[in-house]
Amino acid sequence: METFKIALACDWCPPDVGGVETHIRYFSENLVQRGHEVEIITHKNMNSTAGKEDGSILYHRVRGFVLNRQGVTVDPRAIWEVREILKKGGYDIVHGHGVTSPISAAACLYAKKNGGAATVLTNHSLLRSFKPNFVAKTVLKPLLSST
Question: Bridge-partner residues for 60, per DSSP?
Fold first, then answer.
């Protein structure tokens, strides 16, 4: 079986607890069990550190201001760090989790524009609190349009 180097990008990751966080944990563990190399790109929080966590999964935790209620990173420094991680990472696949996650969107947009890695974007939530037109114009349209 062919193996890949995969970057999972999301604002919501372990050790935080929630639906997306649980999905990221089990999804990444299963990818590793299948022989893939997995790295997670997320933000720093008070309960986490960068480096190897969960055995063989490398966490890149970017700096930046995080909105507590939404748990999303709203800081240009974080976007720059995501780009630097992707430049150096040599990933075969970049998989963003959540269309409203700035880290996820930045990772997918960078990977798409700079080629080399297949790009996947999974939406895990309803867009009740966001205007769908805004999300479609700012996140989805650039990802889906051809370059």
Answer: 41
Token pair recorded at residue 18: 């929630």
Return the residue matching tokens 């524009």.
Answer: 113
Domain extents for the chain? 5-144
**Which region, left, alpha or beta, applies to residue 116 given φ > 0 means left and ψ of -120 to 50 means alpha?**
left
pLDDT attached to residue 43: 83
pTM of the model: 0.80
Q: Which CATH class is domain 5-144?
A: alpha beta
**Cα–Cα distance for residue pair 94/104, rounded to 1 Å:** 9
Which pLDDT tens digit goes with each residue over 76-127?
Answer: 888 889 999 999 999 999 999 987 788 898 899 899 888 789 999 888 776 5
